[in-house]
Amino acid sequence: MLNFLDLKIIFRPLQLQVAKTYSKELIMHPLQLEFAVNLDNKCQALYRLGARKIALFGLGQLGCTPFEMARYGTNGSSCVDIINNAVQIFNNRLKSLVDDLNNSLSGATFIYVNTYSLAAGDASSAGI
């Protein structure tokens, strides 16, 4: 089973160099696909158990954490942009999953909470 910490595997130093060369979409896809399938299965299991209101939280600006900034450097930016770009790709796919769940599971309300924008100080787009 894939967990949150597994998502960080693409940011190991060697793979970060690969990420600078190849499309972030291409690198993130296998991890996101496995994560999305597992998350979809978990949400459907909760639905079968009677859950009807579920909030799913997107990832925040992981590239702005002190650890990532110290580990990879920022190249003059305020954060590690390549990590934040990958987070945004992940969050966009999570939003799509939430839309799919809302369309396929009648009577259920799935909410996407945009923690990325909350961290940027833009509460209006948080989805709450």
Q: Radius of gyration, rounded?
A: 16 Å
Q: How many distinct helices?
A: 6
SS class: mainly alpha
Low-confidence stretches: 1-7, 13-18
Let me know the number of strands: 2
Sheet with most strands: strand arrangement: 1-2
H-E string: HHHEHHEH
Indicate how many domains the architecture comprises: 1
- Main β-sheet: number of strands, strand sense, barrel status? 2 strands, parallel
Q: How helical, in percent, are the residues?
A: 55-70%
GO biological process, one term: lipid catabolic process
Family: Belongs to the 'GDSL' lipolytic enzyme family.
Main location: secreted
Subcellular location: Secreted
How would you explain this protein's 3D organization?
Keywords: Hydrolase, Lipid degradation, Lipid metabolism, Secreted, Signal. GO terms for molecular function: hydrolase activity, acting on ester bonds. It is found in: Secreted. One of its GO terms (cellular component) is extracellular region. There is one protein chain. The protein is mainly alpha-helical and 128 residues long. The chain has one domain. It is 58% helix and 8% strand. Helix 3 runs parallel beside helix 5 (81-104). Mean pLDDT is 77; it is low at 1-7 and 13-18.
